[in-house]
Every structure is written in C-alpha cells, then in structure tokens.
Write a structure and sequence with these properties.
With 120 residues, the protein is mainly alpha-helical. Helix content is 54%, strand content 3%. The protein has a domain of 83 residues.
Length: 120
Amino acid sequence: MAGGRPPKYKTVEDLASKADAYFGHCLEIKELPEKAGLCLALGISRDTYSEYRKKPEFADAIKGFDSLIESAWVKRLAGNSPTGAIFYLKNAFSEHYRDRQETDVTSGGEAIKITWQAPM
C-alpha cells in the first residue's frame, strides 16, 4: 500500500463492516470462513490483507478476523472427519500448527565442527 494506490479501506470500521458481512454470510450458509474467502469478500489480495495487518489502526481487527477463522476450523476438529481442518490449519496458520520441530545445532551461534576421522 505504500507508494501505490490509496488503501481501499480508510477506517477500521469500514473494513470490519465488510468482514462482518462475510462472517454473517458464512453462518447463514453453514460454511466455514477462511482467509481466501475473506479477502474475496473484502475485494483485496492476500498481500494487501497482510499490509493491513502491519498498520497499527487495522492490526487488531485483522488479528481478530484471523482468530475467528482459526476458531471455526479448530471446532471442526471435533467432527467425524477432521483431516480437512488439520490441513487448513497447518497451511493457513502454519506459525501455530505444524508437524515438525526444527532444531538448530550450534555452539554459541557457531556451527559445531566434527573433528573425528575414520581409523586407517
């Protein structure tokens, strides 16, 4: 949004009003909300959505939208077939849901050097 065209939503109230309509529609049709659907309803790209997150006046609203989406998908985990919900959560909220653990093997910030040599 910096240096480009002016932002689509000038106030958090405008953004929240449009998002509330999306979430209400999802409830009406009994469909789980998701980030892609929210972006479509807002008429913005995912990149723009991320840019709104960085703006202090919009950050709490965007985090709240993400929490609503995440909560709906977490509740889906209790159903008969949670595979789709697991997949969505791992991809849409990868910072919180992942299978692997990353281990950094270093010593004081330096890589550990192996000095062992095979016997001759």
